[in-house]
Amino acid sequence: MTYREAIEYINGVRWLGSKPGLERVSELLRRLGEPQKKLKFVHVAGTNGKGSCAAMLASVLRAAGYRTGLFTSPYLWRFNERMQLNGEPIADDTLAEITARLKPQAEAMADHPTEFEMMTAAALLWYAEAGCDVVVLEVGLGGRFDATNVIEAPEVSVIMNIGLDHTEILGDTPEKIAFEKAGIVKPGCPCVLYQQTEGVENVVRQVCAERGAPLRIADFSAIRPEFDSLEGQVFTYKNEPYAIPLLGAHQLKNAAVAVEAVGALREKGWRIEQDALEHGLYAVSWPARFELLREEPPFVVDGGHNVQCAETVADNLRRYFPDQRRVLLIGVLRDKDVAGMLSVLAPAADAFVCVTPDSPRALPAEELAELLRPYGKPVTACGGIPEGVSEALAQAGDDAMVCAVGSLYMAGEVRYCMGMY
Length: 421
Prior knowledge:
By secondary structure, the protein is of the alpha/beta class. The protein has two domains: 3-283, 3-Layer(aba) Sandwich (UDP-N-acetylmuramoyl-L-alanine:D-glutamate ligase); 291-417, Protein-Tyrosine Phosphatase, Chain A (Alpha-Beta Complex). Helices cover 40% and strands 18% of the residues. It has helices spanning 3-11, 23-31, 50-63, 92-107, 115-129, 167-170, 174-181, 198-210, 249-267, 274-283, 307-320, 338-345, 365-372, 385-396, 408-417; strands at 41-45, 68-71, 83-85, 88-89, 134-138, 156-159, 191-193, 215-217, 223-229, 232-237, 240-244, 291-295, 298-301, 325-330, 351-354, 379-381, 400-405. The strands form three sheets. Strands 4-3-2-5-1-6-7-8 form an eight-stranded mixed sheet, with helices on both faces. The chain has a six-stranded mixed sheet with strand order 12-13-17-14-15-16, sandwiched between helices. α13 (365-372) links the parallel β15 and β16 (379-381). α4 crosses α5 (115-129) and α7 runs parallel beside α8 (198-210).
């Protein structure tokens, strides 16, 4: 099997969609020899911030000398980004070889596994055979019935910021969604929680109490910002100094959760010196999260795709570009809270350039433009993302900045157009 054939095979079952439940992935892994049982995990769930926190924790564990896997989704540019080992994506030929072994097992099943289930199984098989010391495993959707929850008790479970997303599957309140996310908590396994509303915290507290899982909640009042610029941020958390290259006040909160997760790992016997923690946070790379791609004119890309993310982007635009005109290059998926996102982003923008993300769920650029016109600001609809990037830069000229926002499904192509690959 070639790399192209492997990708076509995995992508070929997209029609199955998201089918919550652990039966299919459990059977597939049994057929592959239960590779997950040979691994140790840090399991990360949440609506927002889970990818950033997972990347931070993987960077810290690498800095501490551990052979570290990182499993995330979606990818920005190449499928291989979803599974990394010590910061490097899986090689094309390795992915092809793993998929060739997985295919006959999947096709022998009465209920064929979904794309995400096959991807999860492929990653776990690769990590086990590559001799990973630990895998930082990001949940795909929800938690309780997500394919990644096939693992046994992880070293620590992490639950990040909870917001209203995928409500048709997970529930229509933060508390209902929190219950689904808390499904990753295993008996006796420590859990670290992003500080949030009392209702969400109470849901997680109850689940942890029922399962005898020690709970740590990050204390955001213990964060002290020291320096903040487009080069990165310096802060203290519980009087210890740290620096991160990621931008925005929300990333300080994500880092605080990562620090608490490291504390939980230390209590379980993992050797992570303070130098490794500091270096790992300083060295983290997590593209398309308010990432500065160019300085003149400033061009930022953010994969934010829900109302919480839009609020963060709007805050960052005012924080880092208070005196500049702002052109938003925007594309969204139609199944998101588009009206809510636009109501947050529009006050922070001076002009809009609309594009259609690369997804069958995308809202066409012309329809998005019609939704934006009532805000009374210039709106341009473009045929494709490359055209949109050029148009946004042209509109920015020498006195404005550009921010690409609205969907991770357009962030990779935006980065490509800006010469990042």
